[in-house]
Amino acid sequence: MTPNASTSSGPSRRSFLASTAVATAAVAGGMPLLAACGGADSGSREGTTSGKDAKDILPAFVAGSVVTPDIASKNGSAVGFTGKLDLAGLKTSVPKKLGKGGKVTIMAPFWGSPPKGDNAYYTAMNDLIGVDVAWQNQDGNTYDQKLGAVLASSDVPDVVVIPGWNMGGKIPSAITSKFADLGPYLSGDKVKEYPNLAAIPTDAWQRSIFGGKLRGLPMPASYVTNIVPYYRKDIFDEEGYDLPTSADEFVALAKDATNAKAKRWACGDMKWTAFNTFGVPSGQEKPLGWIEEGGKLVYRAELEQYLEALEWTRKLFAAGVVHPDFKLGKSQATDPSTKFAAGEFLIYNNDISSWYGLTAAQATQNPDFEIWGMDIFGHGGGDPTLYATQPANIFAFVNKKASEAVIRDTLAVANVTAAPYGTKEFMLTNYGVEGTHYSVEDGVPVKNDTGNNHVVNAYVMVASPAPTIAHPDFANVAKGQVEWQQRMGAFTRKTPFYGMQITEPSRLTSLSNDFEQLEDDIVRGHKKIGDMQQAVSDWKSKGGDKLRDWYQKILDENGPAAG
């Protein structure tokens, strides 16, 4: 866990690993809700939850008032904090222990070597909450395998954390059959017993309805795209480069900035930014890949702008302006940030958390280094058309067999871990114990080795606060991140299935699995645009049209997401 970094929703587990668990979420919205929709062969319970039924299930939203951010949320952005940290001024958001001293076992993914159960961080958290949490940490890289085995057994822990990227196969049906309905404890005004949970935005809770019941405790995420086109602002300023405002201007800049003999190239693989520039919805979360055009559902790969984005990215590779590592495909296996920091290329796209991560990493060894986020432009110039990501993608579930005492103790844990930035509970959850795990230097909390090894991947996975970005050591970065989200959020649309939990029919769910590899082959010149057109034709005939009809039925019965 990188000290002082924030999280955002991401295309994969890499985004989570690159971030700390200062969770990000969208502002609350009241839109139609669908829970675990599926056909007869989907492997999950059929049915929808919308309108009055949704209102009966969802927790009441009560905005937190304990701490006031320096930058308020706007257009789906995180809130921002730009001041130094005053430990003496930390607020208290949980005035009394809600835990009753019971034991709760929690299984969650962990990247790295898990600490021993009696470490000072776990002990301090359990003392604060009033619950004896026993962690069953599992290797995050192989978590899906362990998860499947555990859920297929009769020995399921009290609480199980399941990231969205691990919800393939039979996992969605296991969620509806193995985990408890939390509605009796959280729906409506009942959530007010847990004020920090009440402050979690509604659309994050919306994503937590599985099989018609409120089963998940969410880690919220901003719905603004998390993929930022970064550029070396220090080099741009030195060379006098202007920021591009169209796809053509980007190509012209890239050619001007590239000098292969001097081992400097303009950019990395810009495919993700190309999709945003040309107005293509995300392919990472399948329900969001569908949009409405002319009253008909259209999948992202059927869009003309999808092919245009691939062709534009292909031209960058063909023009020799992309760093050779990316042309060889190394960007998929190695971290390109080292060569970006060395100035070997000047522009690349990555998760929003990299803004702080790279700034902090280079601060001492390369003081002239300055990374900044380029605003996404429309391909022809002007404003872009961007599409929202999901408002939550990591959830904690409580065993259906758990007693009421265990459920309430779990909610006591979640109420502490969802505490907002600027509170004592947040500091302990995210930084551990002062002096043992971190020290404060000029208003900046800095973790030591013990903190970096122990205060990570655990309690933050149970539940998190609304989206927050705070870097007291680099306040300008926090301000830049939030303001970038606010500007891009102004151009962000919600697709018809935003915020919905949908399990596709099992026989149709893998239809587009090969598209990403084909995309990469096309932009690198190994395949042609015609190969993608043929792949889309095959997709339609092999079940894509049937999948469209399946989604259309959901839309006809429930209506699109509002906003």
From TrEMBL:
UniProt source species: Streptomyces chlorus
Q: Where in the cell is it found?
A: Cell envelope
What name does this protein carry?
A: Extracellular solute-binding protein
Renumbered to this chain, the signal peptide range is: 1-35
**What superkingdom does the record give?**
Bacteria
The record ties this protein, via InterPro entries, to:
Bact_solute-bd_prot1, SBP, TAT_signal
**Sorted UniProt keywords:** Signal, Transport
Sequence similarity: Belongs to the bacterial solute-binding protein 1 family.
Query: Record's Pfam families?
Result: SBP_bac_8 (PF13416)
